[in-house]
Amino acid sequence: MRTRVVFNQKGGVGKSSIAVNLAAISAAQGFNTLLIDLDPQANASQYVLGDDATYNADKPALEPNIQNFFDEVLGNTQQKGLIGNALGSLLKSRTQDFNAYIHQTPFAKLDVLPASPSLGSLTHALEAKHKIYKLRDAIQSLSGKYQRIYIDTPPAFNFFTLSALIAADRVLIPFDCDVFSKRALHSLIENIMETRADHNERLEIEGIVVNQFQAQAKLPREVVETLKNEGLPVLNSMLPPSVMMKESHHKNMPLIYLVKEHKLTQAYQTLFNEIEPQ
User: Fold this and answer.
1) Could you tell me which of 103, 101, 111 has the C-alpha nearest to residue 68?
2) Are strands 2-6 and 170-175 parallel, antiparallel or unpaired?
3) CA-CA distance, 13 to 212, in Å (whole number)?
4) Which residues, including other chains, have CB under 8 Å from residue 223's CB and lie 6 or more apart?
5) How much is the pTM?
6) Is residue 215 a contact partner of residue 188, using CB atoms and an 8 Å limit?
7) Side-by-side strand order, sheet with 103-104
8) Exposure string (b/e) for 66-76, b if CB count within 10 Å is 16 or more?
9) For residues 126 and 42, what is the distance between their CA atoms, to the nearest angstrom?
10) Is there a contact between 4 and 169 (Cβ–Cβ < 8 Å)?
11) CATH architecture observed for domain 2-275
12) Where along the chain do its domains lie?
């Protein structure tokens, strides 16, 4: 089993799109694949589940979800409403089974553990009770079921991101050729390497994924060249901008299922082949 985290402390760099589309290609290639969504915005969950994972003032988040897992880790027993009570009864009997929180997607061999908008409310309690290794232990229990796991993270270095890095083998860092992104990159890498030294010696930075790369524009080329000259692990496969990504989000269909021959889909396939060489 191989577990990848897609992480950048800066928002808007394409974390969810990259996590979902690589997970979808993984599944299409025949790997039993799980997508774990740790971002309270739940973009990855909504990308593959559509309305089922969409929440608003009148519609609660899809359950069970990752917050329910961490509630069980904390031993929280309070539930809200009749649905919550029924869910509590179910989960109490399956507390040790991480599979209880996982949902099937419409796509073969691709499952998802959805996020919750109120996940952040548990941060202080989880930190206070030193629960930083619980996600790692739960993921390890899935080794007989999944061959690949992709984790989408919030745009912050917090408890949930740290939990993901402790659970993972590899990290992919999305990068959008922005000057501010470049300035923050060294701090991000330092956080990853500190996590490796303190908690997870097998963790590797698999590479920097350049997203929204405009090959004909001078500034993006110069920024990428600077990163390479600094010795940073920039992957050769770069993702071009395309309105097709928004179409993919709108239809809740990863690119490999929506437009297999499109240039952006092929760029993702090339990226997947680079990190998963045959």
Assistant:
1) 101
2) parallel
3) 9
4) 177, 179, 182
5) 0.91
6) no
7) 103-104, 110-113, 33-37, 148-152, 2-6, 170-175, 204-210
8) bbbbbbbbeee
9) 20
10) yes
11) 3-Layer(aba) Sandwich (3.40)
12) 2-275
Over the stretch 207-247, which tens digit does the pLDDT of each residue have? 999 999 998 899 889 999 999 999 999 999 999 999 999 99
Length of the chain: 278
Those residues with Cβ within 8 angstroms of residue 89's Cβ, 6 or more apart along the chain or in another chain: none
Sequence-ordered alpha helix ranges (H) in the chain: 15-28, 43-49, 66-74, 81-92, 123-128, 134-140, 159-167, 179-198, 218-229, 244-251, 255-258, 263-275
Contact 109, 31 (CB under 8 A): yes
Q: Give me 257's structure tokens.
A: 């299922």
Task: Give residue-wise pLDDT tens across range 237-271.
Answer: 999 999 999 999 999 999 999 999 999 999 999 99
pLDDT at 80 over 50: no
State which amino acid sits at residue 251.
K
